[in-house]
Amino acid sequence: MEATIEVSGLRKRYGPTVALDGMTFTVAPGKVTGFVGPNGAGKSTTMRVILGLDSVDEGHALVGGRPYRSLRHPLRQVGSLLDASALQPSRTGRNHLLWLAHSQGLGARRVDEVAERVGLTSAIRRKAGGYSLGMRQRLGIAAALLGDPPVLVLDEPVNGMDPEGIRWVRGFLRALAAEGRAVLVSSHLMSELQDTADHVVIAGRGKVIADVGVAELIEAASGARVTVRTSDRTAAMTVLARAGATVAVTATDTLTVSGLSGERVVALLGEDSVPFSEVSAHRASLEEAYMELTRDAVEFHAAGDAR
Ligand SMILES: Nc1ncnc2c1ncn2[C@@H]1O[C@H](COP(=O)(O)OP(=O)(O)OP(=O)(O)O)[C@@H](O)[C@H]1O
């Protein structure tokens, strides 16, 4: 099976709420594709449609060229994690996996393999009800991997994980993609995808607002700006503004300059003997790039979040 996901023109309403408004993107094999957007952007609904759990008013989603519901062995073709807390608390982690494995004609050996792969071996015989959210996420990822599927769909897999867990998921997702799998992973925080995603699909109000490689996105958001570090901020601002630059103060000793090249900044500061310890091309963080793109698409802001 070709390891791809194709989402094409999905439209869906819940009464007056437009959940999906033409959502369209493709997930390629061998990459981690981050699916990012503010709350209510339509990420979970899209994932449910990909997995055949939700219907749409228009459009279609294909996995390996076919609708999920027509796949012969769906769990061997697509692994998914939608809600890590959806488990029976009195069952051990191992029994939870055994129950799923049996439904796919898989045995106990595969269960122990995936438990080991996600680092749950020592806890796998304990009741899942006593697991932390992070351990439940690992159990959910183990379940997604049971059928060794070429496509993975994971909804907020780092939710509730501690920094060590988050680091583990990042490396793990990269390794799964390096094995040639198509990995679609959602998050409402771009920063969670830093060092993980090769590509991002940014959603807002039910549609795609950017579908772009991470390197390209950072490059575009960085713009033609220059970072200047100086012990004489006032003098530097005066000289650079006089030459026509737009200058913003980004820290006590740091300025971000637009409208002049790095070489020109160095020359101007040199001519006026303004001290500086660094002049470099500004590099936007993934978070910064994301904020710029989603500014107009945010459905609502958290209370107290000034606009
Ligand atoms: N079962 C439902 N009934 C009514 N409205 C729904 C239902 N499911 C989703 N919606 C609405 O559809 C829109 C998209 O929701 P969805 O959960 O797909 O977004 P999301 O990007 O996954 O957000 P979050 O990060 O909060 O999970 C939202 O406005 C949501 O309130």
TrEMBL record:
It comes from Saccharothrix carnea. InterPro entries: AAA+_ATPase (IPR003593), ABC_transporter-like_ATP-bd (IPR003439), ABC_transporter-like_CS (IPR017871), P-loop_NTPase (IPR027417). GO terms for molecular function: ATP binding; ATP hydrolysis activity. This is ABC-2 type transport system ATP-binding protein. Belongs to the ABC transporter superfamily. Signal peptide: none annotated. The keyword Acyltransferase does not apply. Residues 5-230 form the ABC transporter domain. It comes from the Bacteria. Pfam families: ABC_tran. Keywords: ATP-binding, Nucleotide-binding, Transport. The keyword Repeat does not apply. SMART domains: AAA.
